[in-house]
Amino acid sequence: MTHSTHSLAWAAPVATAPLDAVVHLPGSKSLTNRELVLAALADGPGTLHAPLHSRDSALMVDALRALGVGVEEVGEGPFGPDLRVTPGPLGSASIDCGLAGTVMRFLPIVAALAEGTVAFDGDPHARTRPNATTIDALRALGVRVDDHGTGTMPFTVHGTGAVRGGELVVDASASSQFVSALLLAAPRFAEGLTLRHAGARLPSLPHVEMTLATLRARGVQVSSPEVGVWRVEPGPIAAADVAIEPDLSNAAPFLAAAVVAGGRVTVAGWPATTTQVGAELPALLTRLGASVTIDGDRCTVDGGAGVAATPLVGGTIDMAHAGELSPTIAALGVFADAPLTIEGIGHTRGHETDRIDAIVADLAALGGVATGDADSITVQPSALHGGTWAAYADHRIATAGALLGLAVDGVVVDDVGATAKTIPEFPELWHRMVAGTDAP
Ligand SMILES: O=C(O)C1=C[C@@H](OP(=O)(O)O)[C@@H](O)[C@H](O)C1
Ligand SMILES: C=C(OP(=O)(O)O)C(=O)O
């Protein structure tokens, strides 16, 4: 089983002057892992240009290869090779999901299309991430799953090579990925799928919109006749050459860095249109008081003299649709003029770690004060001191520690290797941003 890199304690650099940097970011995790799945189920070979190369994408590539899909590295880009994907008959495999939600939710549905038994397991914490909806959905579709009654990994899917599909109701309150997983595989179901979400809430809707857009771009007929209902027609998934956008969720700590330290940070390669939830960062940072401009393919935050000169604007923000961005925004709450409450993020308790508890504990270790409840976190403005910031194997918690370290002397992220989940280049890119040496 692949575990993340050895714990790597990392002294976060302090920004001693306003920032002045242009940052180029590697590819989007959400787009890379969707396009890998769609390419594997497509009607011919296709290429992903500028894909992400990280632990989550490597786990997806390894899993697809184990299932019988050809994935070949071709060419060389700034962050690694392109990927040429050749679909093949899917068969028995043993899949390591690591801590990747996209692997542990997307591939069990793909496994139902395999002829053979497909075993799923992952990191110890991955076994605690919600996955009962995946297993329930498979059984409702007539697919046998052995989970020893746990509703979590490890479990085994007994694929017969075909799924009839039809109508299905799931509870996706714990993760939008349950919906995305079913929609991605549904064109290959004999009758397609009419999927209805029945549950208290549906988090991360932009990620479902991304799924629909990637399907449409490959010629699949999809619709959403009402909120929480989707229809996917059966039919081929067209082979395609697709370009992967930079990861805009990983832009969050870099753009927020200018807010904290002052000066300017530009993220290059900002797409003119995108389905990534990171597209909401300009509005979120503006809401907190920052100045954000988009000029062509460049998104720039001008943090003026930084939070030492001007506090951010506290209050309440609903981030149910963008929980992925909440660790960065919560960290910024330390520098606000009033408590900052982020609501609608109960589902982030089921992410790489319990993100609400993690931020509460990490801030307390630096002398800060935050409180969490079932669905929200409230961060009090406070003067922090140095100390250890635990990453909890969570890339977004690790980068939030780096962000605070810009303004707080002596912050040590206990395992910066956690960033390898979606951005292995993080420490290097961060140091270059602070030093202002990134290429224009
Ligand atoms: O489908 C995806 O690519 C993702 C969906 C979201 O999951 P949740 O709905 O579980 O929050 C998001 O937070 C995650 O980082 C990636
Ligand atoms: C929740 C996240 O990841 P995953 O795809 O593992 O759910 C995330 O990247 O913030």
UniProtKB/TrEMBL annotation:
Q: How does it assemble?
A: Monomer.
EC no. given is: 2.5.1.19
Q: What is this protein called?
A: 3-phosphoshikimate 1-carboxyvinyltransferase
Q: Where do the annotations place phosphoenolpyruvate binding? A: K29, G101, R129, Q177, R355, R396, K421
Domain Enolpyruvate transferase: start-end pairs: 16-428
PANTHER family reported for this sequence: AROM/DEHYDROQUINATE SYNTHASE, PENTAFUNCTIONAL AROM POLYPEPTIDE
Function in brief: Catalyzes the transfer of the enolpyruvyl moiety of phosphoenolpyruvate (PEP) to the 5-hydroxyl of shikimate-3-phosphate (S3P) to produce enolpyruvyl shikimate-3-phosphate and inorganic phosphate.
Alphabetically list the UniProt keywords.
Answer: Amino-acid biosynthesis, Aromatic amino acid biosynthesis, Cytoplasm, Transferase
* Residues reported to bind 3-phosphoshikimate: K29, S30, R34, S175, S176, Q177, S204, E324, H351
* Pfam short name (any one): EPSP_synthase
Top enzyme category: transferase
Which HAMAP family does the UniProt entry name for this protein?
A: EPSP_synth (MF_00210)
Coiled coil regions in record: none
Question: What family, per the record?
Answer: Belongs to the EPSP synthase family.
**Residues the record marks as active site:** E324 (proton acceptor)
Enumerate the catalysed reactions.
Answer: 3-phosphoshikimate + phosphoenolpyruvate = 5-O-(1-carboxyvinyl)-3-phosphoshikimate + phosphate
